[in-house]
Amino acid sequence: MIDNLKKQRDIIAFEASIETQITDFMKSGFERVYGDVRGFLSGFATPPTYPKITKENKDFLNIVAKTSFVELMDLPAFVPEGVVVDYLTYINVLHDATTKLQRLVPNLLNNYASFLGTIINFEDKAKGSWVSFEALLKKEEIEFERIVARLKSCSKEGRDETRVTIDKVVGRNADWTSVFKELGDLNSDFYRINHNDIKKAIEQCVVNLDIIKKNINNGKYGDASHETVKTLSDMAYSVATELEFYAIIYYKIESLNKSIKDTCNGIVEIYSHK
Questions:
Q1: Which of 87, 89, 112, 125 has a CA that sits 20 to 30 A from residue 150's CA?
Q2: How many Cα atoms occupy the beta-carbon half-sphere of 227 within 13 Å?
């Protein structure tokens, strides 16, 4: 669905840029994105629970405190599939992504619902332009691409191993205190993203999309501007992309928590037999 939304966004952007008048552009443009964006929003399932968190492992830290890094460095450790950076680097990147996702509801979902609501309540507004919305989307897109690039730098394509060694996940024993602290901060910040707020905003967007669909079928918006159709398509694609990103980051955080937990438990198990 997202790939098709991107394709339609690009087509609509091109058509909106040409001077030739396209008859009933609102109807043709809206119908091209309506099914996909409504289907995506209606079918989007927010994570049922927050990620399972890993708390500071005191038994593990006691071992680290009395054991040299040289002795520990070649012991097994675990990472999320494909990750090739140390824990602190990866936590920092996921925290960056989480900070952006905290703006998902106020910056994108609520603004999308507001944009759609404005078209519903003030039909003449559909004849105008939406400079502020387009500026917001451009800013969010640049930030999104920056974070995606950072995430890609943390993994290697084609690499699926999850078992490495301790020296690949920390550079020294002292890093473990920071790992637990930064992981705790990451989990806490992700918890602040209210899943119910996301669901409510999605539901409002779906309601508004259905009303606009009905209005178009009743002959409204025949003289809507190209800018309105372009903004509608741009926002649909941005909202879908960021919602998908939200789900991806959720599972990345959950996977990281599990990896760190497995690493600590594995070391404790090894030293319990010594």
A1: 112
A2: 12
